Amino acid sequence: MKRRAALLLAVVLCLEGAGVAGAAGAAGAVQAASREADAPEVRKAAVAPLRVPKLGIEGARVIPVGINERGQLAVGQSVSAVYTWNRGVRPGQPGSSVIAGHTWSRGEGVFDDLGNLRVGDRFFVGRASFVVNRVRRVRSLPP
């Protein structure tokens, strides 16, 4: 498989009480959060798969990862999986969670169509159901 360019998109899930606010945006939130040296270890088990029916994502594997030497989320090479910070809040728990995945110019990345999410669209992590309350922005990041 040849790739023209690898782009990274992140979905930031912010849970507010019983409601959920979703945003497509920068992975910079991960960098800021990663600098919290005293962050509690909250991840003990595998994260349930991600489903985004509107985008055709059915059961994308969610892989907990750390931070690389540049202070960025250490996203892996799989274009069909998504990644979450291993010291952050799990998707579906109160707090903010980041889910990052690839998009590829040839249409093979899990988040190729992330920019098509609209307010009111639903997505799921395991049995937990969420509604996109806002799409703040979608942008490409250098590989």
TrEMBL record:
GO terms for molecular function: hydrolase activity. The keyword Zinc does not apply. Residues 1-23 form the signal peptide. InterPro entries: Sortase, Sortase_dom-sf, Sortase_F. Pfam families: Sortase. Coiled coil: none annotated. Keywords: Hydrolase, Signal. It comes from the Bacteria. This is Class F sortase. It comes from Nocardioides piscis.
